[in-house]
Amino acid sequence: MKIKKEQFTFLSQGQKVRGTLITPTKIERKIPAVIFFHGMTSSEKGYIPIAEKLAKQGKCGMTLSIRGHGDSEGNFNKLTVKNAVQDGLNAYKFLIGHNFIDKGKIGLCGSSVGGVIVSIVAKQKKVRSLILKAPAVYTRKMMSSMTYQQSMAKENKIFNELKDINDTPSIKALSSFKGSLLLIIPEKDQIIPFKTQKNYLLNAKSTLKKRMVVIKNADHGLSRQKWKKQFVSEMLKWFKATL
Questions:
Q1: 83 with 74: CB under 8 angstroms?
Q2: Which string of DSSP letters, residue by residue, matches 172-223?
Q3: Cα separation of 74 and 27, whole Å?
């Protein structure tokens, strides 16, 4: 199937967020769509090839760089996770503004801090299917008062000493999610503890369907090609089955 890529810009709290919309070249009816949210210090770049594979299956893949990352506006040293969540909400609004999107078949995929974004967006918006890859967890106070720069400087301590994990906004948000949830955990994640990530699945008690996949020996960023291939394979199968 032939696909096309279109760069876009939308405003989030007055700043420009840039990304790429990837669709089949010929669209004859409304199609499902997936928005991809990257981790901290990353960008949309690594997700464009993944979204292309999704488009070849007849869906729309939307990638973007949250503010302070990639080509989007914003200061990494001043923005917070709360700002990132707002980017996620505005990205959802931008996506469903396209008349070829099936609003009943929206999927979200988030990596690390992207997992926080998609969990909270899924509580506030209509979302059918979620994938969380190595999801991070932040308290409400951390989300609003700790900048990206500050959280990166202390990330190992933050995630290993975090208490009351089940009371964090993203995990609480998933407790009422009624769609389908896939949790992908790197077995040897050096940043976010395995048990912290697993709490997302344990607290998602209202889901239609849920599954956990552990990528053996993998690190947080899936730095080896075979780990990335496994993630992409699981992602394609999941959204094919649930959207």
A1: yes
A2: HHHTT--SEEEEEEETT-SSS-HHHHHHHHHH--S-SEEEEEEETT--TT--
A3: 34
Q: How does pLDDT run along the chain (243 residues), one tens digit per residue?
A: 999 999 999 999 999 999 999 999 999 999 999 999 999 999 999 999 999 999 999 999 999 999 999 999 999 999 999 999 999 999 999 999 999 999 999 999 999 999 999 999 999 999 999 999 999 999 999 999 999 999 888 877 888 888 888 899 999 999 999 999 999 999 999 999 999 999 999 999 999 999 999 999 999 999 999 999 999 999 999 999 999
Q: What is the pTM of this model?
A: 0.97
| Residue 76 backbone dihedrals phi, psi, to 5 degrees | -55, -30
CA distance 156 to 39: 15
Calpha distance 29→130 (Å, rounded): 23
